[in-house]
Design a protein that fits this description.
Chain lengths: 226, 400
Amino acid sequence: MITSRQLSYRYVNGPALAFADLEVAQGGVLVLGGASGSGKSTWLALAAGLLQASSGDLTVAGQAVAQLDKVRSDAWRAKTIGFLPQKLHLSAALSVYGNLALSQWAVGQKTDHKSIHAALAALGVAELSERKPSQLSGGQAQRVALARAVLLQPKVVLADEPTASLDDDAASAALDLLLATAARLNATLVIATHDSRIKKHLEAVCRPFLGIKLASSPINTVASSS
Amino acid sequence: MNIIVLSWRYLWSRPLAASLNLLLLALGLASISFVLLVSQQINRAFERDLAGIDVVVGAKGSPMQLILSGVFHIDAPTGNVPLAAVKELEKNPQVAKVIPISLGDSFRGFRIVGTSLDYIKHYDAQLASGALWDKPMQAVIGSQVARQTGLKAGDAFAGSHGLGGGGESHGQTPYNVVGVLAASGSVLDRLILTSTESVWKVHETDAALDAEDQKILEEERELTLALIQYKTPLAAVTFPRFVNTTTEMQAAAPALEITRLLNMIGVGTDLLKALAGILLLTAGLSVFIALWSAVRERRADLALLRMLGAPPRKIAGLLLYEALWLALLACLLGVLAAQGVMAVAAWALQAEKSVVIGAFVWPIELIVVPIVALGVALAASALPAWEAYRVSVFELLQSR
């Protein structure tokens, strides 16, 4: 569940961004559209508790993000947010298994072999666990990165441009995977993208997925230089 | 997964840079360890051989040479002094003990030292086999002499003239080995000891033309030098001056000469220390550059860790641990390398029949090495760790 009211963010000596009010049910899908520079990254950062909104309210998975201080926001983000970055950022120094163990280390958990294995198996990449990221294909790497994003069973999955530089078939496969993974965890899925294929695909595909409500509002940006 | 394993993996994810930094750091630390070990060994060797000898009296010349030849047996003596003059000193009320030393001959590079049994007693040396001498032409040999020449109690050998070996052989007057000393690590290990009478006998038999000539020679008997212990420390003030002004001999205080010698060697060790310092500085800079570029390279990785929920101190700790790994490995390598060089030096010095140094001692001063390593690691990683601490996750979202 994500709700925002009158949310805005003003950069120091930069543009002020105002975001459209929105409400996404737990397990729903939100597509943040718009051209680059329209504030998609800023919205993601606000939702992850990395930036503090200038005004307005943003509640993510029952937590008013503005009320988190710096230290608590790290812990909160660890257990609430799963993040799939555009460039994946799998650590080249570690194996696939190590990359997942790394995210457990990051939040101060002991390496849990069972859950790592389960997360990899759920995405069909369990047999790649000893490989280095450099030995993976693009699709495999994205599956591994997604396994890492959902390893700690987050309530919200943030995906940043998940289909950039993918051809049509690969893009729809990646999207289906995202949707299925989020649905399995009943996590709210937020996709920041300027890829017009995504919205089309979602509209075509989402109805058959039971329980997924598509709240694909383009973020209404009122960008102005201050 | 823990920070120790993780930092190890990150360190070796760039094997070339890691190896080079390790090498640089290890070289610097090895130099420091080496300087420490050498000065410690030299001090120890000197102290052990000095063993309470207050003053050395011998022919006029360089006092340092007198000490080196008479106490440590590594230089040629300054000359001889009349036996009668030394006997005169024995009567001096300030003198507790006089140990005569007569040099001049050698056997396969090992010095034959004419002395009294007091010399053996002075160093507390124990017999490994055989007995001490009770007649002239009987010899007791040090452990290293026994090992390298194969001589044992019951064997006979002829000394040759001169200390270097290869001189004219005294074949008419062979020595009988009656005892072998146990290894003590002192100068006695590489000496052949006999009574002073033996040394006179060898030369007189060789030189004397007849019985009358022999008598004349006996009256002119000489010693090379005498090791003297005082009755009271106060003697140090007056006794050397007394000898130097009223006799044809000179008195040299070993403590003074050794200090002078160590100061001279000190210039060398200072130079080595400076070199080690430069090496360490280079290593520190190189580690710094490596870590700094690692932070730059892995900025996104580090930001992702933040995104995954790692607090900033954890990210900075990762960098710190990487540097600590380097320090630990370099410490081990450096100290082992230094000990290895020391072992080779000990072996070489022993082969040259020079100062005996023991291999593989672990002086407490070596504690400096890990401390220095830690210091370099911390200094080199401080700025990169701070940079890692400040990594902003937001960059991750903007890196398009």
